[in-house]
UniProtKB/TrEMBL annotation:
InterPro entries: Cell_wall_metabolism_enzyme (IPR050570), Dup_hybrid_motif (IPR011055), M23ase_b-sheet_dom (IPR016047). Gene3D superfamilies: Glucose Permease (Domain IIA). GO terms for molecular function: metalloendopeptidase activity. It comes from Streptomyces griseomycini. This is Murein DD-endopeptidase MepM/ murein hydrolase activator NlpD.
Length: 254
């Protein structure tokens, strides 16, 4: 091995070479764990230590070995700390992702809930308007002798909206009702919108609360522009309900 070669028969190796040789020897020892077990008596027992040049090597070896041990310990500690830091970072990252995922899920849940609530909400057919002619009010103008719906005050061309979620089952001319839309509501009841100046939906179309279905007008048997609105148990004339009670029962303020 390198550290045993100085026998006196050869020139001492140059400094750099020696250093390299010693380092190599120490490294080799360090690799086997022998360095730590070398003791002074063992070295002293060796013959002609001064001549062999073993002593300087081993002496330096002890120092270097201590340093290497210290370094190894420091490196081990640093590696352990680095691993801990990495694990901490990974855990923090995972926690952040989990929180973000939960926030997203909560947001989606809230959005679904809001949409579900919106779809189940009822609104007035003409926001901000009022009932100008009540349900069952008498008058020569009604073919049945009494009003089967209510009239909402509305100038011609005022947007008319579906009062709730449903499907359009009639959209067209309705005789005395003029241009009308009938919607089968999600709960199985029907709503009807008459005297429209224009119709914006077609049969089979799904509508949501507040969706515009046409514009108010004065088509059909009328004396002036307004919206005639009915709530019914079927799509047909004669199955009418009290529209104001119907809307109020569905949460509409009238
Ligand atoms: Zn009417």
């Amino acid at each position: 091995m390198a550290f045993t070669r100085a026998t006196g028969k050869h020139r001492r190796p140059r400094r750099i070479e020696r250093g390299t040789a010693r380092a190599a020897g120490v490294a080799a020892l360090a690799g086997t764990g022998v360095v730590g077990s070398l003791t002074a008596p063992a070295v002293a027992a060796g013959p002609a230590a001064a001549q062999t040049g073993l002593t300087p090597v081993v002496t330096m070896g002890d120092v270097v070995a201590d340093r290497i041990d210290a370094q190894a310990a420091a490196q081990h500690e640093a590696a352990r700390e680095a691993a801990q830091a990495a694990a901490r970072k990974a855990a923090e990252e995972a926690a952040r992702e989990k929180a973000a995922e939960e926030a997203r899920a909560e947001k989606e849940r809230a959005a679904r809930e809001a949409e579900r609530k919106r779809l189940n909400t009822f609104v007035s057919p003409i926001p901000g308007s009022y009932v100008s002619t009540g349900y069952k009010s008498g008058g020569a103008v009604w073919s049945s002798g009494s009003h089967t719906g209510v009239d909402f005050h509305a100038a011609s061309g005022t947007p008319v909206q579906a009062v709730g979620m449903g499907t359009v089952v009639e959209a067209g001319w309705g005789g005395a009702y003029g241009n009308q839309v009938v919607i089968k509501m999600h709960d199985g009841t029907y709503t009807q919108y008459g005297h429209l100046s224009s119709i914006g939906v077609s049969v089979g179309q799904q509508v949501t609360p507040g969706q515009r279905i046409g514009l108010s007008g004065a088509t059909g048997n009328v004396t002036g522009a307004h919206l005639h609105f009915e709530a019914r148990t079927t799509a047909e004339y004669g199955s009418d309900l009290d529209p104001v009670a119907y809307l109020r029962a569905h949460g509409v303020n009238l």
